[in-house]
Amino acid sequence: MMLVLWMFAGLGWMPLQDTVSLSEIEVSAPSWEHFASGQKVISFEKRELNDYSARSLADLLQEKSPVFVRQYGSGMLASPSFRGTSAGHTAIFWNGIPLNSPSLGQSDLSLMPIQAIDQVQLQFGSSGALMGNEAIGGSVHLKTNPSFEKGLKANFSQTAGSYGLFHSGTSVHFSSQKLSIQSRFYRQFSANKFRYRDLSLPGTPEKFQENAQVEQMGWVQNLSWVIGEKDLIKASFWWNQADRQIQPVMGSRTRDQQEDQSFRAVWDYTHFWNNSSANLKLGWVQDELNFNGIDNQTSQFFLIPEWNFDFWDNWEFKVGGRATFAKGELSTYSAKDNRLETYQSALWRPKEVLSLSLNLRQLAFEDLWKPFLPSLGVDWIFWKKEKEQWMLKSSMAKGFKVPTLNDRFWEPGGNPDLLPEESLSGELGLHWTKRGFFNLEQSLTYFRMKVDNWIIWMPMGAVWSPQNIRKVTNQGLEYEGKLDWSSGPLDWQVQLGYSLTQALDLTTDSNRPQQLPYTPRHQTNTALKAELGSIAWDFSGTWVGQRSIGTGDSRKMDPFHIWNTGISCSALKWGKVQFPIRFQILNLFNADYQVLYLRAMPGRTYQFNLSIHL
Fold first, then answer.
1. Neighbours of 45 (CB within 10 A)
2. CATH number for the domain that contains residue 244
3. Which of 82, 178, 215, 320 is deepest in the core (most CB within 10 A)?
4. What integer pLDDT is reported at residue 490 of this predicted model?
């Protein structure tokens, strides 16, 4: 199949572009989602992100999705866990280029403010054939979307809150029929001097959190230019800087300091034919981290050519590749890592209610062509009426993760002989939608996954070293429900999410496999929203079940339940100038909780936001 697709590409077949319509000058769904039949995808658009404009991606994922976010404190390191996998098993993309650090193999969600992005999409399950490296548990896709023919627009927002929080954001956007230019600037400061109970001392006395101050600022620049009728150029740049005092664990008096600085740039060129298009993407990511005066720096350059084309009726194909050139200048080593990936995707729609996708990817690194990754998915609407439909979604896929630079080259302890982590997963989902006085959407997904060659650092004498020794099986259920209706002048919306995750370590010494540390079996998200014209009120909650602190399942952390509420008004005006306002209370009932052991979290928090739209 791979040779057939390459042959047609070489003979001049060019891709069908499903993502851009020049006649309307608008960008629609990205091509990866187009070939993701059978896989679970959750999308958050700009309107849904507005309530999180002064918060981070970590907050959004924890409160609005089945993803568990391991937070080391307010504003501290935050890493995602999809379906019981580790942070290194989540691939994160920005405008189509990978962001995970080549040295650590993951990204810090607390350093990704919602203010900088327009769209967030979550893809669940192994998808190495479609996404590439690290997409074992799932992937996160961040995007900035251009808009045209809007003229000159400017927005300013200011948020003030508890514990010394100040967040400022400015956006200036100019667009004509074929040109869109947008600049965004943001800055956030939080002293983080909240009260907490110190569990490390007798009597658990109350104390003020020390050494947890956070300051973050950034600039995002976007350009989209339609040239003639057949060419589109897009370019984006994102600079982010954070200075953080690292919050110590309870009982510790450490005064660690960390400075993070990231530069990200991507350039896209797309050329269109009547039924096809070709795209060339260039990307650059540079991360600098200074921990207590010790500098570490990594850089990555990406070259991604891609062709989408129409072949026969009801068939669509994508052929492409990704070359990655990474370099790390760390405190204990200097290393380079070059990789090449080729991929092909096919989508077949024999009927309007049925679509099947096949994705294939081949990786080459360290002079080895491995592993080969396939995935297969199907979407089948087996029951459809005017206002009701039932859809079955199913997929099987392989995933992989190349050992990080730290895994292979850290001195002392790095292991250059490590094998890639590989996974095999499958899922089966049932989706039901019904329209009427009550609009209802429900989905139930069963997933099962096995991960081999899981890398874990272990003591090898006096030195810790990574080894491919862990085997893990993950299985569980995910439910998502949404109900909205109108009652007189009021519009209501109710959302409910629940996930059951069993992530078992098969390599423990125990006779019974144990749940992985810091992996809750149960997690729920609930939300209620009421709108009366321009006034909206919302009430939401997140419940996280017990988590084991370490291996052996002997010590567990208590469940916690966090409730948030907010009220907003978007109708305040002075002439043509709009003044939306919002007031919210986070941790409404002042719950005393920790996400990770001995890492204090803030109590009740107040935030007030004022925006100016010109």
1. 12
2. 2.40.170.20
3. 82
4. 95
383 token code pair: 């029951």
pLDDT at 96 over 90: yes
**How many domains does the structure of the chain reveal?**
1
CA dihedral of 350, 351, 352, 357, whole degrees rounded to 10:
-40
Q: pLDDT digits over 549-587, tens only? A: 876 666 889 999 999 999 999 888 888 888 999 999 999
Distant-in-sequence, close-in-space partners of 577: CB < 8 Å, separation ≥ 6: 612, 613, 614
Q: Amino acid identity, residue 210?
A: E
Query: Could you tell me which of 521, 476, 558, 591 has the C-alpha nearest to residue 68?
Result: 521
Return the SS3 of 101. Answer: coil
The residue with greater pLDDT, 456 or 569, is: 569
Query: What's the Cα-to-Cα distance from 607 to each of 351, 390, 582, rounded to whole Å?
Result: 50, 41, 8
For the sheet with 41-44, list strands across it: 41-44, 119-124, 138-143, 90-94, 97-98
Contacts of 91 (CB under 8 A, 6+ apart): 98, 100, 131, 132, 133, 134, 135, 138, 139, 140
How far apart (Å, rounded) are the C-alpha atoms in residues 536 and 530?
Answer: 6
Q: What angle do CA 249, 253, 258 make, to 5 degrees?
A: 75
Give per-residue burial for 577-586: e unless 16+ CB within 10 Å, then b.
Answer: eeebebebbb
Q: Which tens digits make up the pLDDT trace of 411-434?
A: 998 999 898 899 999 999 999 999
Gap between the Cα atoms of 212 and 246, Å rounded:
6
146, 305, 318: which is closest to 221 by C-alpha? Answer: 146
Q: Are 237 and 221 in contact (CB under 8 A)?
A: yes
Q: At residue 445, what is the residue type?
A: T
62, 497 contact by CB (below 8 A): no
Query: 109-161 pLDDT, tens per residue?
Result: 999 999 999 999 999 999 899 999 899 999 999 999 888 888 999 999 999 99
Dihedral sign (CA 41, 42, 47, 51): negative
d(CA 392, CA 427): 11
Residues 304/283, Cβ–Cβ less than 8 Å: yes
Q: What is the pLDDT of residues 49-78, one digit of tens each?
A: 988 989 999 999 999 999 999 999 999 999
Distances (CA, A) of 477 to 137, 448, 497: 14, 9, 11
Has residue 207 got a pLDDT over 80?
A: yes
pLDDT surpassing 80 at residue 445: yes
* Whole-angstrom Cα Rg for the chain: 24
- Side chain identity at residue 128, one-letter code: G
pLDDT in tens, 279-288: 999 999 999 9
Return the pLDDT at 273: 86
DSSP codes, 329-364: E-SS-EEEEEEEEEEEEEEEEEETTEEEEEEEEEEE
Structural domain that includes position 133: 2-613
Stated as kind and residue range, the H or E segment containing 497 is strand 490-505
22, pLDDT greater than 90: no
> What H or E segment, with its residue span, contains residue 3?
helix 2-10
